[in-house]
Structure formats: structure tokens, C-alpha cells
Design goal:
Length: 169
């Protein structure tokens, strides 16, 4: 069995953005009138940054377990929480690229695996992400599940020659 996780070194920018955004919004809230539109906007932004921080904490505490039977998403903090998607019961695999620059030179990938056991969604900050992509695409191919052309192209960008089937770069 292979265990994948989100290392702190890859998540600290999200923690920093959430903390700074929350501190700035909360600080500005002290000077805004409670009945003003600005107060409502700042409160909404503060909640958004709090949600980003909570989402990052959630991401850091999950683990992905890969074995020959399938993929399992487990919580390190909640022993009973798990989401299992057997490879033989996959219904869809999607690999999407989200760019942070206009020239698409930087960004991240998000892998979504759907099956009868639920949905597992991870991003490219996960350790051994290319391994997970290869296994998910191989499982989809063996189940005869069609993949979007963009999924194959994005997988080929990971420099995995065995994933280039059908990709036009």
C-alpha cells in the first residue's frame, strides 16, 4: 500500500494567505460602521479567508491510500472517516489544469476520481501525484471509461510517456 499526503512545505502559502487575509479584514472591521455595506463586505471576506484556512487544515490532515483494490481517502483525526473508491467501480476520471498566469506557465492540476464509493478530489501538491494519476487513468482505461482529451493532455504534461495515448500536444 502507498500512502500519499499533503506536506506542510507545500501548504504553508495557503496558511499564510488565509492568516493575512483574515487579519487584514478583521482589522479593518474594527473601523467600519456595523450598518455599512463595507462592514458586510469585510465580514464576508473574513469568512472567506477563514474558510480557506479551514480547508487547508482539512487538506493537511487527510491521507490517500493506494493499493491494488482502489483508492481510499482517510482522515488522520477522525478514525472512522474514510471514502473508498474501488478501481473496478470507477465511473469517471478528470484531470483539470488551473492556471495562475495568463501565459499558462504556472498553476496546478486537480484530479477527480468518481466511483460508486463516492468522489476523491486531490490536487498536484499531494506527494507522488503523478503515480496517482497513472493509476487512475490505467483503472479508467481498464474499465473502458472514456476520458476527456484535456485529461489525457494534462496527464501527458506530467512527463508520463505511458499516458500519452490519444493526447495531441
Amino acid at each position: 500500500m502507498t500512502r500519499l499526503y499533503y506536506p506542510l512545505a507545500r501548504l504553508w502559502p495557503d496558511y499564510l494567505r488565509a492568516l493575512l487575509g483574515l487579519l487584514i479584514c478583521a482589522g479593518l472591521l474594527l473601523f467600519a460602521s456595523p450598518q455599512s455595506v463595507i462592514f458586510v463586505l469585510l465580514a464576508a471576506l473574513a469568512l472567506l479567508f477563514a474558510w480557506l484556512g479551514a480547508n487547508t487544515v482539512w487538506r493537511q490532515q487527510i491521507e490517500i491510500e493506494l493499493d491494488s483494490g482502489g483508492i481510499t481517502q482517510v482522515s488522520r483525526w477522525h478514525a472512522g472517516w474514510r471514502r473508498v473508491v474501488p478501481w473496478s467501480q470507477i465511473t469517471a476520471v478528470s484531470l483539470r489544469y488551473f492556471s495562475t498566469r495568463r501565459d499558462r506557465s504556472e498553476g496546478w492540476l486537480q484530479l477527480t476520481i468518481r466511483g460508486h464509493g463516492g468522489r476523491v478530489r486531490v490536487d498536484s501538491r499531494l506527494t507522488d501525484f503523478p503515480l496517482l494519476v497513472r493509476q487512475a487513468i490505467a483503472a479508467a482505461d481498464s474499465c473502458g471509461i472514456p476520458l476527456a482529451e484535456s485529461t489525457r493532455i494534462n496527464a501527458a504534461r506530467l512527463d508520463a510517456p505511458d499516458l500519452r495515448k490519444g493526447a495531441h500536444l
